[in-house]
Amino acid sequence: MEKLSILWALVRRDYALQYAGSFLGISWMFLQNLVLISLYALVFLVLNLKEPSTQEDFTAYLLTGLLFWIPIQELLVRGTGILTDNRSLLKRSSLGINLFLWIPYVQFLIHSFVTSIPVFLYLAYSGKLRFSGVVFGYLVLVSSGLYLMLLLHYLSRLNILLKDISPLIRLVSQLIFWGIPVLYYPTGYLKQWNEWNPFTIPLDVFRTSVIFGFQAQFDWFHILPFLFFFFLVYLLAKRKFQSVILDHL
């Protein structure tokens, strides 16, 4: 419990540093997420870039894809730079590296929960929400964050060694975003390609959980090689990087 209270204090401190002097404070984060979802909805739904017969189904498909990806992308970018951003505090305290790595994960849980409220309300209003799958759907988001954390243990340490790889991670996150079926239905060669994207299966499981009548698009066992690889990367970061990182802080 003591570590949890310390972690929560660090999360609040991180928020305060990120939004110091901001008029709306942390509300900017949630406003930004809602505006981003609204912009994509404007382009792909209001401007009617889909056939009218698929419009209703595509609305749920688009919104759940964005709900899944936006917090994941935030976790990827923030988690990569969390150690370098707290370098001075890490040097002065004995809290250890691992505790700081959980700061962006707690923020990920908060952001995904708050962002999911208007999305789930809309899906419920349109009759597309699978009420029995809401809790499981959020657990899928929680598990997806833990899945990414395996990789972030490595990337956050690598970020210290290479000074700053955050711009590269932002670029990669954009490539991943357009590579997974957030804004489109996967068909043909694109569907085959998506089977080997590490985030496609968690997204597919999430959609299957929360969208009423949605059929899984992929075989879920394809995530196993990525899960095994991410776990190996996690072990490498814990065993080989730890002493090196402490010397470079």
UniProtKB/TrEMBL annotation:
Residues passing through the membrane, by range: 21-46, 58-77, 98-123, 135-155, 167-186, 220-237
Keyword Transmembrane part of the UniProt annotation: yes
Biological process according to GO: lipopolysaccharide transport
Source superkingdom: Bacteria
Keywords, sorted A to Z: Membrane, Transmembrane, Transmembrane helix, Transport
Keyword Transmembrane helix included in the entry's annotation: yes
Family the entry assigns: Belongs to the ABC-2 integral membrane protein family.
Protein name as it appears in the record: ABC transporter permease
Source species: Leptospira jelokensis
